[in-house]
């Protein structure tokens, strides 16, 4: 086994969230400056992206989709999945970081406070549940981080794009043209983005939530597209139309990382009712 993979596979999720919040929280007052990778980013963040960029090949992405998109990891209610995800947090030091459920509720509560519709609130509550991939044994670089298109030329709008030089796909000529294996304007649904929690959760919820919610879930980590305007040549008019929802969602995902911790037990009845409205039964994961 690749030693880099072995090290990474055993790393707990909280260290993954640590790098995320470290980058995000250094600029709590500056909104769009939340994610500044140009400053003195910690070595763990660089190393995370190095592993992500060298290991996420086009073939790797297709293999993970084949493995997980058929939803054969068991049935769980949404609340059960939230509690399952929460087991990844180290409770030996509960005051250091928000738990996974707390992050989800911070996001959904911020959306709710702004008077958005119920499906939007529920999307906030669920958006990171795909991180249960970590509990299936997937390494962090296959679960989180900004996503990028595989099977076509790497965009220099992707963070730490210099690491792509060591991805085996960099030497595959057909993957390094502007459109690669795709047709221009084919739509993002036909583009194989680097694998992670966005893509997995999309397949879990696609029959239950409205299209706007599905865009938020599937593309919230696709920063090169929604923040930088990269890959527009592969997007469809439908993608461009829905981009506004991804952007609308994203501000809550970022800002909620510095909010007060929510009272989970107090809020639980509201959310159980909201979940039941869209997911009356357990769903396949
Ligand atoms: Fe996420
Ligand atoms: Fe999130």
What does this structure look like?
The N terminus is likely disordered. The chain contains twelve helices and two strands; from the N terminus they run H-H-H-H-E-H-H-H-H-H-H-H-H-E. The chain has 285 residues and is an all-alpha fold. One fe (ii) ion (FE2) binds next to loops. One of its GO terms (cellular component) is cytoplasm. It is found in: Cytoplasm.
Tell me what portion of residues adopts beta-strand conformation. under 5%
Total discrete domains: 1
Widest beta sheet: strand line-up: 1-2
Q: What is the strand tally? A: 2
What order do the helices and strands follow?
HHHHEHHHHHHHHE
What would you call the structural class?
mainly alpha
Distance between the termini: 27 Å
Q: Sheet bearing the most strands, described?
A: 2 strands, antiparallel
Low-confidence stretches: 1-33, 90-96
Q: How would you state the average pLDDT, rounded?
A: 87
Tell me the helix content.
Answer: 40-55%
**Overall 3D geometry?**
globular
Bound molecules: fe (ii) ion
Give Rg in angstroms: 18 Å
Count of helical stretches? 12
């Amino acid at each position: 086994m690749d030693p880099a993979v072995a090290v990474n596979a055993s790393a707990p999720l909280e260290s993954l969230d640590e790098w995320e919040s470290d980058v995000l929280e250094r600029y709590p007052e500056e909104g769009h400056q939340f994610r500044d990778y140009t400053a003195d980013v910690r070595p763990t963040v660089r190393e995370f992206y190095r592993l992500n960029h060298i290991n996420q090949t086009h073939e790797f992405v297709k293999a993970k989709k084949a493995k997980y998109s058929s939803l054969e990891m068991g049935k769980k209610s949404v609340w059960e999945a939230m509690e399952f995800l929460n087991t990844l947090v180290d409770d030996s030091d509960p005051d250091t970081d928000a738990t996974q459920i707390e992050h989800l509720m911070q996001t959904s509560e911020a959306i709710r406070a702004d008077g958005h519709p119920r499906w939007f609130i529920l999307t906030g509550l669920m958006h990171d549940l795909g991180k249960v991939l970590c509990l299936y044994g997937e390494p962090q670089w296959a679960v989180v981080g900004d996503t990028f298109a595989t099977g076509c030329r790497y965009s220099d709008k992707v963070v730490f794009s210099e690491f792509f030089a060591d991805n085996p796909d960099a030497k595959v000529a057909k993957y390094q043209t502007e459109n690669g294996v795709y047709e221009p304007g084919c739509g993002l649904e036909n583009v194989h983005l680097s694998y992670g929690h966005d893509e997995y959760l999309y397949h879990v919820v696609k029959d239950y939530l409205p299209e706007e919610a599905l865009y938020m879930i599937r593309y919230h980590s696709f920063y090169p597209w929604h923040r930088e305007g990269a890959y527009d040549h592969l997007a469809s008019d439908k993608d461009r139309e829905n981009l506004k929802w991804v952007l609308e969602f994203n501000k809550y995902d970022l800002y909620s990382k510095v909010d007060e911790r929510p009272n989970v037990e107090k809020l639980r009845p509201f959310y159980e009712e909201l979940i039941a409205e869209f997911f009356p039964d357990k769903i396949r994961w």
